[in-house]
Amino acid sequence: MLTEKYRPLHFKDILGQKCIPQLERKAKEFKDSLEKNDKLKETLDSKEARKLYELKTHLLFYGPPGVGKTTTAKVLARYVFGKDWQSHYIEYNASDERGIKVVRELIKKNAQTAVKKIIFLSEADNMTPDAQGAMRRIMEVYEKNNTFILDANNPNGIIGAIKSRCADYFFMPVDDKSMLKIMVTILKKEEIDFSSDFDKEQLVELAKYFKGDVRGTLNKLEQCINFDTKKLEWVDLKDYIPIKGLMLMARDGQFQDAKTQLEIAFIDNKLRYQSIIEDFYKFVPEIYPDCLESQIILFRELPKVARDCEQLKYPIISLVGFLSWIWALNHTPK
Ligand SMILES: Nc1ncnc2c1ncn2[C@@H]1O[C@H](COP(=O)(O)OP(=O)(O)O)[C@@H](O)[C@H]1O
Ligand SMILES: [Mg+2]
Would you tell me how many other CB atoms lie within 10 Å of the CB of residue 252? Predict the structure, then answer.
């Protein structure tokens, strides 16, 4: 997979994220303090050493999927621990059992070892508040040897007690220019020919298409590469279902078709629900151009859809729900 093969190894290769220089400084500070601390422990009394450990070192990464959060955590671990970084880095996904499993694992693992570690917890906002509470205690108890990095799509999904122990960093959708650069760099390394004007146009389109999600973009790019001929074979981006089109379908009564297309967009084409909601928002005025009242009803519904998408295991339920609103404003439910 291109995404794994070209996952950046150094801070400088993570493009389009303003928080990276800041994090790089943090990493340096962290590395220095580890080294200093080891020396301090030998020479000074432990009070002094402990003070250094009291630095607010846990981190919270906010941002949408596919923009470099996991990558940054790995880069940071590599920077701090060097060659042997993998034995100092653990990654968990908090959505397993809503986080309970993770908390249990962490306690088990940490009771057994005193090796300094960076523990990366993705989707921390999927943990129940109880699990987060337990997590916070673990963060405190094992603070001495462990730096936690929590990753969350939604800042509101993290309990205050954890937030107050962490420094936060915001990851943004990657801008089109950086996206293009990431793709071109990979194409060059893979020696793929993209010299035609058409290839260039399509690349510019693709850079915009996933609205800053690098993972989605690279996966799509990979589908378009013929590795035997070293040429690009564009699976037309128009194959992707434009959201406006299916909103119009729902309005005009083809609800079933619209629903199927939305499912394809979300499930097969892996369009993020955030980007679908953004499109919903953008196109509402064009779906009912002459009826402000209908627009307002839909605008009032959208924040609920967004909230539900964050909370439901299957966001598609909520997205289809919004389509049915569009339908209902133009049809009387029987
Ligand atoms: N800012 C970025 N610069 C360069 N490559 C990136 C960037 N963000 C993501 N990628 C690419 O996308 C892949 C997935 O990114 P990842 O860090 O796992 O995203 P997430 O934010 O969901 O944790 C990476 O392996 C890398 O190839
Ligand atoms: Mg991730």
Answer: 15
Check: CB of residue 126 under 8 Å from CB of residue 155: no
The mean-pLDDT minimum among 29-33, 128-132, 165-169, 179-183 falls in 29-33
- 117 within 8 A of 147, measured Cβ to Cβ: yes
Strand, helix or coil for residue 226: strand
Model confidence pLDDT, tens digit, residues 14-67: 999 999 999 999 999 888 877 776 665 555 455 555 555 444 579 999 998 899
Contact 315 CB / ligand 1 (< 6 Å): no
Mutate to test the pocket of ligand 1, among 2, 170, 214, 220 (most ligand atoms within 8 A of CB): 214
Burial class (CB in 10 A: 0-12, 13-18, 19+), 239: exposed
Phi, psi of 58 (to 5 degrees): -70, 145
| Pocket flag, ligand 1, residue 11 (CB < 6 Å) | no
Q: What is the DSSP letter of 68?
A: S
Q: What is the value of pTM for the model shown?
A: 0.72
Average pLDDT over every residue of 255-262:
92
Furthest CA-CA distance within the chain: 81
The owner of tokens 């993998």 is 86
174 Rama sector, left if φ>0, alpha if ψ -120 to 50, beta otherwise = beta
Residues, CB within 5 angstroms of ligand 2 (ion): 69-70, 122
Q: What 3-state class would DSSP assign to 171?
A: coil
pLDDT, tens only, 172-226: 999 999 999 999 999 999 999 999 988 998 899 899 888 899 998 999 899 899 9
